[in-house]
Each structure stands twice: as C-alpha cells, then as structure tokens.
Amino acid sequence: MIVSGPFILIAVWWVAYAFELVDKNLLPSPFATLADTGANIWSGNLMEDFWSTFVRVFYAFAFAAVAGVPVGIVLGVNDKVYRSVEFIVDFFRSTPATAMFPLFLLLFGLGDFSKIAVAAFAGWLVVVFNVAYGVMNARQTRLLAARSMGASRARIFFDVVFFETLPQTFVGLRTGISIALVVIIVAEMFIGATDGLGHRIIDAQISYNLTDMYGSILVTGAMGYGLNVLFLVAEKYLVHWSGK
User: Fold this and answer.
1) Residues in the chain with pLDDT < 70?
2) Residue 139 burial (10 A CB sphere; 0-12, 13-18, 19+)
C-alpha cells in the first residue's frame, strides 16, 4: 500500500494534466517534473537546498526536544505548577507560528538564527504540552501498585511514570518536528533566505519554473514523510509496550 501511494499520486496528476482538468500553463506533466527533479538532484543543486533546510529543521527540533521534554515533565508532575502556566502554554500553542515572525525578526534579525528560533519555539510548545499530558495521564493502577510495594517517589518516576509517558512523548516529538519543518519552509520563503527548499519553491514560482517548483514541493513532502516514518519506526521499537 505504501508503494502504491506514489503511483496513485502520479496517475491522478497525469489524468489532471492529460485531460486538462487544470490549465496546462499551471500544471506541468508529472513525468517532465520528475525528470527535471531527477536532473536537479543529480547535479547536486537541489540537494544543497535540501541539506540547508534539513540542518535548520534539525537544530530547531533539537532545541525543542532538549528544552521541551524536561519542562513538560516538571509541569506534568506538579499539577499546581501546570495549572498556573496552562493559559500561557495554550495561548502561544494556539497562536500561529507565522504570526510570531515579526517579533523574532526584531529580536534576532534576518539570519538563520531567527528562522531556527521561531521554528524551535513552535515545536517546543507542542513537545511541552504532550509530555506534560503524558505525565498527568500515567495509568493510576500502575502508580498505585508501585506505591503499595513501597517504591520511593524517585523510583516510581523513573520506573513507572517515565515509561508511561514515552508514547505521548513520541507523539509530541513527531508533531514537533513536523511543525518545525513547516515553519522553516515558510520562513525560508519570506524571511530573507538565500537557500533552502522554501526559498527554492518561491524562487521557482516567481520565475515561472513550474517543474522545479512542483519538484521542490515533492522533495519537501518526501522530507516530512521520511522524518515522520523515522519517528514511527523508532517509537515502534523503543515503546513496544504502548497500548498494552
């Protein structure tokens, strides 16, 4: 089924192109697009933009994960602390990250740091929320069983709460890296980037290079899909007890 997905996409695309369901001036042939994309990958210039975007996403996600998981655990363990900051977390989590671009531009300028910072901030909020939710919703039966056997609070946390939280933590990490990718792509489009897939897409659109534009979009989607699959595989092997 996974293999058939790309073929279905190409088939639908070809039907729309061949029967002119979409203006041919706006939708190139899928085969011409794939050929152009393959040539750009082979020449290396597309992979340079791919790598630039990937590095920015990696840095943004690394900050979101390293700073988000401990904060989420602290908030989840102490219900009073979480309730005191719940409005702030939910408010900024509900605020579109793109609305924060002007603020981060003023604070950090037009360089890479502002792009990475706004993506990290958006991802961090998602990670914090999911980790805190996972801690607060750890199965009470297992907590009670551990307490009844005389386990210390530290032992309960590391042997019960930590592992109970991992499934929800992976949900937060997977969602966080997806949001980081989205924000980085949009930032590359509109915040003074000179490389990256977002810059390549908007540059191809402006110059009316449609095969390059569609191809870059496909490569961006492939990156997002690949990262999602990577986390799903890691979750499957590292949190194999999830749902049991």
Assistant:
1) 1-3, 138-148, 150-153, 155-160, 240-244
2) exposed
Question: In angstroms, how far is CA 187 from the centroid of its own chain?
Answer: 14
- Output the CA–CA distances (angstroms, integers) from residue 22 to 15, 36, 206, in the order listed: 10, 20, 20
Give Cα 13 to chain centroid, integer Å. 26
3-state secondary structure of 25: coil
Task: Look at residues 143, 165, 146, 151 and name the one whose alpha carbon lies nearest to residue 72.
Answer: 165
Handedness of CA 85, 86, 87, 89 (dihedral sign): positive
Quote the pLDDT of residue 198.
Answer: 94
Q: What pTM does this model have?
A: 0.88
| Distance, CA of 119 to CA of 193 (rounded, Å) | 15
Give dist(CA 168, CA 115) in Å, integer. 27
* Distance separating the N- and C-terminal Cα atoms of the chain: 27
Q: What one-character DSSP code corresponds to residue 99?
A: G
Closest CA to 213 of 194, 189, 191: 189
pLDDT for 137: 76
Phi, psi of 25 (to 5 degrees): -75, -15
Question: How confident is the model over 49-58, as pLDDT tens digits?
Answer: 999 999 999 9
